Amino acid sequence: MKKTTLGIITISTLLLSPIASAHVGSFHIHNSLLDGLIHPFTGLDHLTMLMAIGVMAQHLKETKKSILMMATTIALMLSGLALGSIFSGAPSVEGLITGSLFIAAFSLWSQARTGNDIKKLLLNIASVSFILMHGWAHGAEFTSSSLTYFGMGMTCSAIIIMSMGFYLSRFVPTKLLAKVTAVCGLIVTFA
Questions:
Q1: Alpha-carbon span 166 to 160, nearest angstrom
Q2: What angle separates helix 63-87 from helix 117-129, to the nearest 10 degrees?
Q3: What is the DSSP code string of 45-80?
Q4: What pLDDT is recorded for position 181?
Q5: What's the CA gap between 174 and 109, in Å, rounded?
Q6: Cα(63)–Cα(55) distance, integer angstroms
Q7: pLDDT tens readout for residues 1-37
Q8: What is d(CA 57, CA 163) in angstroms, rounded to the nearest whole number?
Q9: What's the predicted TM-score (pTM) here?
Q10: 93 with 176: CB under 8 angstroms?
Q11: Measured between alpha carbons, how far is 185 from 191 in angstroms, rounded to an integer?
């Protein structure tokens, strides 16, 4: 399959995903494993960020480092989920989630360029760190004891989406994925 065709499929998938709405304060049902499995695929912010992290992991070129990056992402997402359920809403969590998409876009753009490995590393760390806020937003919405089941479902979906980004980056130019990530960030910003 041509890179152009895969690029169009990727862009279509991201843009046809329902637009993310503010999580904190709005009503979302998070009471089952199935909800956790479905949710990352239905929010443009989650889909874009997790896909971008998969692409970043592919650029690490070493399997151990790639797995460590994805495992750290999952750990931070679940930590954010737990912290959000304990401490409830953080007033700027949505702004941080939106900002994380732009940091991810910048990180992908730098991955496509040669040189300055320290800059790439720092951007990867920043991108993965902001996953904490993606989990926090959902933890703040919990009113029941179903946090565990939702978290398990969300973890499975996150692994699938990051793996899709990991393998997709072999066929689609990273600069194109960086641009798509930035456009998705704009869409989430103005949604």
A1: 10
A2: 30
A3: HHHHHHHHHHHHHHTT--HHHHHHHHHHHHHHHHHH
A4: 92
A5: 7
A6: 13
A7: 566 665 555 555 555 544 444 344 444 555 688 888 9
A8: 9
A9: 0.82
A10: no
A11: 10
